[in-house]
Amino acid sequence: MSIIKPIITHFTDDDLYKFTMCCAVIDNYPRTQVKYRFNDRDNTIYPAGFAEELEKQIVFLEDLRITDEEIAFMQKRCSFIPDWFYSFLKGFRYSRDWVKVAQDEDGHLSVEFEGCWSNTILLEVKVLSIISELYYIMTGESTTLDYEVYYNRSWEKARRMIQGNCVFSDFGTRRRASFEAQDTVVRAMKECNDSLKGPGRFIGTSNVYFAMKYDLTPVGTMAHELICAIAGMYGPQMSNHIAMHTWSKTYRGALGTFLYDTYGWRIFSLNFSEDYANMFKGLRVDSGDNYEQLDAIVAKYRSLNINPATKQIVFSNGLNVDEALKIRGYAEGKCIPSFGIGTHFTNDFPGVKPRNIVIKLLAVKITESWPFYCETCKLSEDKGKYTGDRKVVERFMEALHLI
Fold first, then answer.
1. Which pLDDT score is estimated for 2?
2. What is the reported pLDDT for 4?
3. Based on the number of CB atoms within 10 Å of its own CB, is 59 exposed (0-12), middle (13-18) or buried (19 or more)?
4. Positive or negative, the Cα torsion across 190, 192, 194, 196?
5. CA 202, CA 248: separation in Å to the nearest integer?
6. For 363-378, how does the pLDDT look when each residue is reduced to its tens digit (9 = 90+)?
7. In angstroms, rounded to a whole number, what is the distance separating the alpha carbons of residues 169 and 399?
């Protein structure tokens, strides 16, 4: 089977956090080089010829150009991004040379990335969404997806969230069943929100293109990648502190939701001083027990004489509607809760198993002139989500006094 047409056809069919991080990287680390690696946590056997089809899709990316319409939308809705960044995007071109794809005789997929950080940073979400959709095309599962039924199911999910007083957004680009699946979800939730009018609300989507198409707010700030890279260059003990300083230098108080769990709550808490706790409007919970994490966050704010009820906490740790509603009840009066939901929104078809896939940073060097890379890893609040080579993980755990 040969897939002729490109899966990604819009430059901004991507998550906002990739653009905001790219901007911060250019502003602070313009010469930094990185390596990433794809990881299929389920050790999936991919169809024969998958690697070749994926390579074709990556070549298709070279034809993408950001449009004037896309730039105008981002300038209007993302005023925190400096204008110089759009000049960069106008001249940006993807390159197949940054990616190496292979498939072994058993069908396991290997994808590796290497290049200047400001270039390769824009590959992650696009490649993951390609892999996810391509898998369903090549297995034939894409023919079973009923989008009319899916619209109704998505509308009902939105209804429950809105009537349950949840503020929420779509975070589902990376592992969506298809472009059409995410389009269906965003359209359904937008129309549900417009018809119900509260008490909760659907505030937008991480996907910039769909935000533009449906006149929504693009949602997102940063990913673990930023802290991981800094940890590789300077060490994990102060990586959160340096990342907060870097972010505030570029955005000057805007985009103030910090993703804290790259190396766990304990080391972040030691880095989270009163000045940054006041500067950032809130934190994002992406691993661990949601209730325990919230309690720890509340206690930390109180220890700094900050009222936690004035701070936004974004929950995004593999949520579904039921769990979001439970967290909403628990968080009542403790903080300003909001929810970013991904796979449960964009890949929740009966009988179709979502891809459990990630692309993670492996190594970094400050400039291209360095003769060696410094390895890095991620240690979240969930040990099952640790990523990186085992020896690197152990070294970082020892540095952070986790072993």
1. 63
2. 75
3. middle
4. negative
5. 27
6. 999 999 999 999 999 9
7. 36
- Confidence band of 3 (pLDDT split at 50, 70, 90): low
Cis amide linkage into residue 199, ω under 30° from 0 = yes
DSSP-derived secondary structure for 79-92: TTS-THHHHHHHH-
What does pTM read for this prediction?
0.97
Q: HEC states along 275-329? A: HHHHHCCEEEECCCCHHHHHHHHHHHHHHCCCCHHHCEEEECCCCCHHHHHHHHH
Residue showing tokens 């995004």: 316
Q: How far apart are CA 92 and CA 90, in angstroms?
A: 6
CA distance linking residue 160 with residue 353, whole number of Å:
24
Dig out the tokens for 92 from the structure. 């940006």
Q: Give the long-range contacts of residues 237-244, CB within 8 A, separation 24 or more.
A: 237/267, 237/399, 237/400, 238/271, 239/263, 240/267, 240/268, 240/271, 240/272, 241/271, 241/273, 241/276, 244/271, 244/276, 244/279, 244/280
Q: For residue 212, which of 64, 23, 76, 65 has the smallest C-alpha distance? A: 76
Cα distance between residue 68 and residue 86, in whole Å: 10
Q: Give residue-wise pLDDT tens across range 200-216.
A: 999 999 999 999 999 99
Mean pLDDT, the chain, rounded, equals 97
Q: What are phi and psi of 364, to 5 degrees?
A: -150, 145
Q: Is 374 helix (H, G, I), strand (E, B) or coil?
A: strand
Cα dihedral sign, 214-219-224-225:
positive
Q: Is the pLDDT confidence value at 1 over 60?
A: no
